[in-house]
Amino acid sequence: MAELEGLEFGKSDFVLLDEVTMEQFLDNLKLRFEKGRIYTYIGEVLVSVNPYRTMEIYGRENIDAYRGRELYENPPHLYAVSDAAYKAMKRRAKDTCIVISGESGAGKTEASKYIMQYIAAITNPNQRVDVERVKNVLLNSNCVLEAFGNAKTNRNDNSSRFGKYMDINFNFNGDPTGGHINNYLLEKSRVVQQQGGERNFHSFYQLLRGGSEEMLKSLHLQKDPAVYLFIREGAAATTFNNDRLGHRAVMSALGVIGFSQEEIKAIYQILASILLLGNLQFESDGESVQIGGVEAVSHLSELMGTGPDAFRKSLLYRTVATGGGEVIEKAHTEQEACFGRDAFAKALYERLFSWIVGRINDVIQVKDYNPLLHGKNTVIGVLDIYGFEIFDNNSFEQFCINYCNEKLQQLFIELILLQEQSEYQREGITWQHIDYFNNQIIVDLVEQSHKGIISILDEACLTVGNVTDTVCLDSMDSKLAQHPHYTSRKLSPTDKSMDFQKHFRIHHYAGDVTYSIEGFLDKNKDLLFQDFKRLMFNSNNQAFKEMWPDGGLSITEVTKRPLTAATLFKNSIVALVDKLACKEPYYVRCIKPNEMKSPVLFDDARCQHQVAYLGLLENVMVRRAGFAYRQSYARFLQRYKMTCEYTWPHHLMDSDRDAVETIINKHGFQDDVAYGNTKLFVRTPRTLFTLEQERATLIPILVLFLQKVWRGALARMRCRRLRAISTIMGCYKRYKVKAHFWEVERRFANVRNMADYGKGVEWPTPPATLAQFHSATVTLHRRWWARQIVKNIPPSDMLEVRAKVAALTALREERKDWGLGRAWERDYLVRDSPLTSSTFLHVFKDLKVRDEFSQVLFSGFCRKVNRFNKSSDRGLLITDTYVYKLDPNKHNKVLKRISLEAVTGLSVTSGVDQMVALHTSNQDDILICLQRGQLCPKQDRVGELVGTLVDHFTRLVPLEFLPCETEMNQSPPSDVRQCFQGLEGDDRLVSNLYSATCPS
């Protein structure tokens, strides 16, 4: 229970009253009103009193205080009911609704706005853009619908002149994802006529007082509302609304919702058209009727997007089709023209309002919703509908409004009183019956088929002939004479508060209301000439065409007679009640403390009347005699089984009832509950609140336990998966290795019998694990291939082969032509110059005796180039010990002798010339040209010189000390050098041959 407020504020729950009497109820209500406590509970029903002043109880701090709390954990508040409905929707995935009821001026509209603000504030913690968009549209729709659907009445400065039911759709996370708005019975008669002291809809005054000069000029309007007949009555009426700020807020809200600039312009064009229509005057000369003022027609046709002639014709003539299909035009009388003008103005506003609601629904409706992907779509409904009304002159609109309140009261009786008592009987719970007034008899008086007032009205509207309101009243008197809740002056001649042939009275649950029958039939028929529909359908404004789709019908096209306004309203209210009945209801019962809109005055008689017809006293009695909470055993056990060790995680008892009883006894609540046939009944909310607190404490522990178990399961699954992956990978790797061996064996099985010993066989790509092994295998094959080649070379050719292999190793890819294709003779001095051969032989013998060399590596004629770029012919003799430079012109005189060990390198060019540079340790380099051309045509001896020297040095010293190098390639690759180390004889030749033919 709500026990957090001191006794000086009275009882925060009427169930806690010492005695359930009207006096104590009103005393407690008055005390709380005077102390600024405008909210009080009756169980889960919230009673709200209009404070008529600003209350500092709706800020962010208050929202945080009620967010996620149980209903009775904080003092009574509208936020508590909103949070309870939201939690019930989220916890049990069940649709809920908040029904706000009360008479006009009791604060229903403000309550619905606070409910919307609270739901918007507690949802979407992750700030998702799509959810924020839906919330903004829902919140801003209130501003727009108030401007176009609310008006100032004598009872309320911001009275809703239409009924609104809004469904808010939520996803499984509890975030709003869409919604839908239903509007009921807009009081369109207010567009053309208001009672004294009242105003037309806010939108007209906001436009004139808040619109810019430029905007009003484009709409052909003036700022003074008193200029326009339709709103003149309310021009001087005071209101708490600031029309200028209201217009600014509406324009901003329309943009946020998603209305385009063209659509906003169309909205205000219709408002301007209605104001200008009201000022149209009709003049009759006895034979025909004309419109006074050409300029007004021009302005109206411009605003509506029609031609002036077509607009004038629709006001002055009516086009009808005869039975034979002939189309004729019938001129209006002055009275018919005025009637048509007013009907057109009302229809314009009604269509505009319905179009605005439809556009809002298009923006916020749930599109492409898939429950399998998004989870169950739950709903919270908020009903803000006109309250019970009793005016000095009550017409067709008040009749429909009061019928709607009768239906909602019947729903309240069924859900709160009747169902509760019947459920106690069904469950076998001891119960003392509570008497209450069941208003079903009044509902039947209005809506019963063939006998109800709506059926009588429809029958009168469908009867051919001149059926007047008086004839309809006579029919009602004759058919309803015996009904205890219906009377008229004809049935009660002594009651002078009613007039003959004008008034009838219905004894509503909220009191007696006298209705004037005048205008009932016309408003019920709601006839509008088809000419106006065609006029608007043919407008060049697309928005106007959308509002009047029925204008596209042909004049001669026969259509089904439309349903009357009363029947349409009855059908929509029946559908609304059915929609509310299938949801879990939460009620806000609004009370108007006085008629003066005073924040301090509490009218006891006025409040007693409202408490009586709202059935609040009976509600207290039922709640005190009954139980605050009931739930099936299975659902109760599912929610609270973790609070008892004997039921968690599964119980071993005979039934769920026994398990629930164990939970109750364990917590010591056995004196506060009753056990029904299928449900547990809890008397006070404190018991439920205690269980919820313990459950909330245990949930984190259980979540951690479940997370631990689940994480362990995931880790084991992952480990098993990794093991399986490792096994599969191991098997696959072994298969790839074996497959590679098999493929190598297949490809190289017959290499001994191949002409090239398998050199042209392509090696298969090895798996990564065999990369090093593959490299070694290729090396082995290449060495084996080289050995096979070497074995077949005659001994006489081995010296030349060695030199060519060495040259190939040094000059590969460095020179295009280096003499590979010819025989290498090494000693060319004798062969190239027979005339001097004897002299050379003599010199050769002397040098051999003196220097004791054993082998001539290379000899031949050349051209020496000195540092001054002067060239001369010379002879070159290279032995295994010295390099000699000879002068052939002086009998081969030795000009220079250089020890072969002093030679540090050899440089050649990459072209086809025969330039060779011998580098020495003492920097005395020798630059010579091997004279390709005159002495040795078509012979390239550079390769022979390089190969001979490389072969010589390779056989004498390790390769890392090899003195020979080229200008383009300074030294052989390191891997080749390693292969050469430590090899002798044929092995070294094989290695050279392998390195020369091995791919780079």
TrEMBL record:
Boundaries of each TH1 domain copy?
813-1000
Q: Please state where this protein is localized.
A: Cell projection; Cytoplasm, Cell cortex
What residue spans carry the region label Actin-binding?
573-595
User: Ranges for the Myosin motor domain?
Assistant: 9-696
Gene Ontology CC: one annotated term = microvillus
Q: What is its main location?
A: other
**Pfam families assigned to the protein according to its UniProt record, in alphabetical order:** Myosin_head, Myosin_TH1
A GO biological process of this protein is: actin filament organization
Q: Does the keyword ATP-binding apply?
A: yes
Q: Which CDD domains match?
A: MYSc_Myo1
Keyword entries, A-Z: Actin-binding, ATP-binding, Calmodulin-binding, Cell projection, Motor protein, Myosin, Nucleotide-binding
Q: Which GO terms describe its molecular function?
A: actin filament binding; ATP binding; calmodulin binding; microfilament motor activity
Question: For ATP, which residues are the binding ones?
Answer: G102, E103, S104, G105, A106, G107, K108, T109
User: Which family does the record claim for this protein?
Assistant: Belongs to the TRAFAC class myosin-kinesin ATPase superfamily. Myosin family.
| PANTHER family for the chain | MYOSIN, UNCONVENTIONAL MYOSIN-IG
State the name under which the record lists this protein. Answer: Myosin IG
Gene encoding this polypeptide? myo1g
